[in-house]
Design a protein that fits this description.
alpha+beta; 29% strand; two-stranded antiparallel ribbon; 5 helices; 5 strands
Length: 173
């Protein structure tokens, strides 16, 4: 107890008279890829209660003891001073793993839209039946030379001519 109070910068005698709250802060940061001997906590000590408080400085509490003398009940109120120690632990630990790294990398790729491109490239390059996949993935368009083909810039007349359209209507009575 003397070592902890001294490391917090306080006097054990003063703390025992008025009480106080000492915080033991343990900072525990570990890289679990390294040996366990490399994972050592760092300790620090400090006083948590205000020393110069007007109301009640230090750490104290009251309790009552009840007793009887000649069939009369008496109460003795006792104010006790104590040293309270709060242990506060901070830290983080981590270890490299290939599976979460691959999952995070693939998630990042799909966020940028690279995932579908990459999957198509792998399937079209390395798959044995890539012709089947290619046939289902892509539609092939062939140009047909025909008189009835749609108007293109090559066969489009420079002047527009309107042609009347005859509409036949059949009436079945």
């Amino acid at each position: 107890l003397g070592y902890i109070v001294k490391e917090a910068g306080e006097s054990l005698i003063d703390l025992a008279k008025k009480g106080g709250v000492i915080g033991v802060v343990i900072n525990w940061n570990c890289d679990l890829d390294l040996p366990a001997s490399q994972c050592k906590p760092q300790y620090s000590f400090r006083r948590l209660d205000p020393k110069q408080s007007q109301g009640s400085s230090g750490f104290n509490f009251r309790f009552a003891k009840y007793h009887y003398i000649n069939n009369t009940e008496y109460r003795t109120l006792i104010k006790a001073y104590a040293i309270q120690i709060d242990v506060i632990v901070h830290g983080k630990a981590g270890k490299f793993s290939l599976i979460p790294t691959i999952i995070n990398f693939c998630t990042a790729l799909t966020s940028f839209g690279v995932g579908s491109f990459l999957c198509d490239w792998i399937l079209l390059t390395f798959m044995n039946k890539n012709e089947i996949y290619s046939g289902r993935k892509f539609d092939e368009v062939h140009e047909v030379e025909d008189e009835n083909s749609p108007i293109t810039s090559d066969n489009c007349p420079s002047t527009s001519v309107s042609t009347p359209i005859e509409i036949k209507q059949s009436l079945d009575l």
